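Explain this record to help learners:
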Amino acid sequence: MRHDFYAYLDRMKYIKRWQLMRSVREENIMEHSQSVALLSHALVTIHNGVYGGNADVLKTVLYAMYHETSEVMTGDLPTPIKYYNRSIHGAYKELEKSACEKIVQTLPDAMRGEIAPYVIADEDSVEYRLVKAADRLAAYIKCLEELRSGNSEFTKAKKSIEEDLHSRNMPEVEYFFEHFIPSFELTLDDLEGF
């Protein structure tokens, strides 16, 4: 019997992000998901190691890895449209959930119970909250990259994403900003070790 789950996920490399904006370097949701997984691992490590939390590291990273799964069916809906009003946002959330459920059904029964809880995340969990912050951090870092390349198209996005991140009142995010974000402004030659 054929199972399409991983073929669907492999198509993440074809789904472009930032569709409404001119980008110096295009980004797809596969590479974005890898970035969010790294940043989620950083935030959960800060949460647990610096602030004494007890979030599940594996759950956090797996939520991040699968957080864009629905977009292989829905595409990447631009943020201004997705959040235009509550009605559109609510309908889109339902569409995302339905897409995830359909994709999970393409797994063999013996695997579904082990993978589905990460594709269809517990949105009330601390792990999910950390992934959502990491998702925004990845977008912020993309803005920094574009601005460093001389693309002023990302000026407003950087400002609004930064405001959103700080408004979350998450010490993990503030720690990341203080200790890691300054390095994203450097060239390879300026980084320590080179």
The CA atoms of residues 101 and 148 lie 39 Å apart. The chain has one domain: 5-190. The chain has a mean pLDDT of 93. The two ends are 52 Å apart (CA to CA).
